[in-house]
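note to self: dont lose this again. the chain is below, predicted strucutre after it. 128 aa total, dont forget to put it in the shared folder this time
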Amino acid sequence: MNILISTLSQTPIYQQLQNQIKELVLKGMLNSHEQLPSIRLMAKDLKIGIITVKRAYEELEKEGIIINLQGRGCFVAEINLSKIKAIHIDMLRERLLEIKEFADAVDISPSEMFNVLNEIYGGNEDDK
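---
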């Protein structure tokens, strides 16, 4: 499992781990019923605290991405396509909230944001 943790990031380490595992699952790089490394092994490999990994796994379990079978370990849950779409929309919402906070902080109006989004998608002002 290829996971990179940045100590320079504003995002908490548990959340970086959580997001990267979620992406691996949603991209199909981790399949349903596949076992994740134990909390201790993951912490050792990434050189982070056990509590940090435990929190990331707990958050993933709350989201229904993984299941924890007591005494057996953590496994990727079976996820249907509509649930994957809902998770992707939630992830998009989180990123857009970060962008909104940035825009508010630097005084960029919603209409200016929409213009930029239109530019990105190759539209123009008349397409609204």
